[in-house]
Amino acid sequence: MVGATVPVHGGVLLDTTAMQGIIAVDAISGLVEVWAGTFGPALENELRARHGLTVGHSPQSFDLATVGGWVGHRGAGQYSTRYGKIEHIVAGLEVVLADGSVVRTGGSPAAAQGPDLTQLFVGSEGTLGVVTKVWLKAHPVPSSEQRAAYAFPTFEAGLEACRRILRRGATPAVLRLYDAPESQRGQGGDGTYCVLLVLDEGDETIVAATMAVVADECAAARDLGRDLVEKWMHHRNDTSALQALTRKGFVVDTMEIAAPWAALPRIFDEVRAAMLAVPHARAATCHLSHSYLDGACLYFTFAATPPAEEVEATYVALWDAGQRAVLAAGGNLSHHHGVGLNRARFMPEALGSGMQVLVALKQALDPTGVLNPGKMGLPSPYQEVQWP
Ligand SMILES: Cc1cc2nc3c(=O)[nH]c(=O)nc-3n(C[C@H](O)[C@H](O)[C@H](O)COP(=O)(O)OP(=O)(O)OC[C@H]3O[C@@H](n4cnc5c(N)ncnc54)[C@H](O)[C@@H]3O)c2cc1C
Fold first, then answer.
1. Quick one: which of 43, 107, 310, 333 is 20 to 30 A from 327 by CA?
2. In angstroms, what is the C-alpha Rg of the chain?
3. Could you give phi then psi for residue 229, rounded to 5 degrees?
4. Over the stretch 192-208, which tens digit does the pLDDT of each residue have?
5. Is the C-beta atom of 16 inside 6 A of ligand 1?
6. Best mutation site among 34, 73, 239, 254 for ligand 1, i.e. most ligand atoms within 8 A of its Cβ?
7. Is any atom of ligand 1 closer than 6 Å to the C-beta of 75?
């Protein structure tokens, strides 16, 4: 998504997928030890079939991605409002450092023995160490599931319902609110309303209570029935429409960010306006995809039709406009795609003085700069990378 694995200085690319499979399961605690190169389906199929467990992490890239990749860029699954992002699911790591030494982090449900070293490596995008083993928290396979869909007159009204649901303590696995154009494009809308899809799974009593809170907070919205969720389940991992646009010469990409609830309405308005002000921009749309007690992730999709010689400049301008509008309005740089190359130039702005801490960590753990050089805006002993 962000060029995180592109070897900009040449060098050696590590393929981790020979480190494959579940190593051990502690069924009493619900803990799974897995090799970092394991793909999502291999992990989930065996966990469900042999142990009656699920980790609940289901990114759109589920079939293509490894556990180490999930950890590497701090990913989020589509059911994250119940199961959490990967940083909430990880219980510990085994990491090989740049000097070849091996560290083991985590190992208890909570701790007060200094900072959490597991979280130091989660999201480090291969710049601080190579993750070889991962311990993940697992849940019983859900015994119950419920679905619902609602139509809101405005995105802001839908946002407010989502906020109230989360503030009351309900965490439905899937809570996805689409703006009017996206509702029309993929959720059966007619362009005049915003669709909210809801799905929860787990223990029957918890699911029933969660969906009762959802129904309560969506009482003023139009009930769209359950079929829309079924439809979403079938096409949720299909990105062929975006690929078709790229083949036609459109500049298309997506940008996901997180912000507190109070900042989201402004970000929704200002980011779309900033992107649409870029020459040749054709569309900037948005949906909410992951929610928390204090805020949520907004996921923007944008498209432009520049002449061939302006494709790259338009792409850069769209990212500059969108990302800077997010940062100015109180959002962050990324919710789950990470930084890689594409967002590296924004890191000092996004982290502020925290960037010095990250640079110091990099220098301490990888003094010769061999681990994924040129990424995340970190200094590199090789030549500066001009990207894009
Ligand atoms: C169509 C599509 C849909 C996507 N949908 C989602 C989504 O819903 N949610 C989401 O979170 N992401 C999504 N992504 C982004 C991303 O592909 C995935 O999230 C995925 O988890 C990355 O895993 P990977 O194994 O492909 O890692 P890679 O892309 O190979 O690596 C990702 C980063 O992690 C580092 N890394 C990988 N393995 C290790 C390791 N063992 N130790 C240390 N660092 C490591 C790499 O250096 C790199 O910086 C999507 C991508 C695509 C193409």
1. 310
2. 21
3. -70, -40
4. 999 999 999 999 999 99
5. yes
6. 73
7. yes
Alpha helices in 218-353, H assignment, sequence order: 227-235, 240-247, 264-276, 311-328, 347-351
Answer whether 197 contacts ligand 1 (Cβ < 6 A). no
What whole-number distance in Å separates Cα of residue 178 and Cα of residue 197? 8
**Residue whose CA lies nearest to ligand 1 atom number 23:** 69
CA of 256 to the centre of ligand 1 (A): 14
Q: What's the one-letter identity of residue 224?
A: L
Q: Looking at this protein, which amino acid is placed at residue 272?
A: R
Residue 62 CB neighbours (<10 A): 18
**Ligand 1: which residue has its CA nearest to atom 32?**
69
Cβ of residue 36 lying under 6 Å from some atom of ligand 1? yes
**Domains recognised in the chain with CATH numbers:** 22-140 (3.30.465.10), 144-235 (3.30.70.3450), 240-344 (3.30.300.330)
- Ligand 1 contacts CB of residue 346 (under 6 A): no
How far is C-alpha 88 from the chain's CA centre?
A: 13
Residue located nearest, by CA, to atom 28 of ligand 1: 69
Give tens-digit pLDDT for 17-37: 999 999 999 999 999 999 999
CB 192 within 8 A of CB 301: no
Q: How confident is the model at residue 386 (pLDDT cuts 50, 70, 90)?
A: low
Ligand 1 pocket check for 20: Cβ under 6 Å: no
**What is the longest distance spanned by two Cα atoms in the chain?**
60
Ligand 1 near 336 CB (within 6 A): yes
Record the pTM: 0.96
Q: Which helix (H) or strand (E) holds 236?
A: none
User: Ligand 1 centre from 81 Cα, in Å?
Assistant: 19
* Nearest-angstrom CA–CA distance, 42 and 317: 40
Token reading at 199: 């799905």
pLDDT at residue 155, rounded to an integer: 98
Residues 99, 8: Cα–Cα separation, whole Å: 22
CA 111 to chain centre: 26
Segment 331-367, tens digit of pLDDT:
999 999 999 999 999 999 999 999 999 999 999 999 9
Measured distance between the N- and C-terminal CA atoms of the chain, rounded to whole angstroms: 13
Rounded to the nearest angstrom, the distance between the alpha carbon of 127 and the centre of ligand 1 is: 14
